Amino acid sequence: MKKIQVLLPEPLMGRLRRRAEWEDRPMSEVIRRATETWLESLPDDPPPRERPPVPRTFRLGLRVRDPRRQKEAIYDRESESE
To answer: Could you give the count of Cα atoms lying within 13 Å of 17 in the half-sphere of its Cβ?
Structure first.
């Protein structure tokens, strides 16, 4: 098993504590069982997400810059503002 840290709002944490006490089980087991049940209700393989294409140029100010020159363009703008 792997250990993780999860932050829960206080009302949800209270419900979880009460459920664990009522079932006489550790909270971690209640969370594992609930997570398992939720995951079983989902499709096995979610459809792949469409990812937008990576832009070949970036717009900095009014000029369109090649990404290979982006760092240079940023330094140019900083020196112009001084």
So the answer is: 7
Q: Which tens digits make up the pLDDT trace of 62-72?
A: 555 566 677 77
Q: Show contacts of 50-58: CB within 8 Å, 24+ apart.
A: none
Residues 9 and 19: their CA atoms lie apart, in Å, by 16
Reduced to 3 states (helix: H, G, I; strand: E, B; else coil), residue 51 is: coil
Beta strands in the chain (DSSP E): 58-60, 63-65
In this prediction, residue 80 carries a pLDDT of: 61
Average pLDDT over residues 15-27: 96
pTM: 0.53
Which of helix, strand or coil describes residue 50?
coil
Please say whether the dihedral angle defined by the alpha carbons of residues 28, 34, 39 and 40, taken in this order, is positive or negative: positive
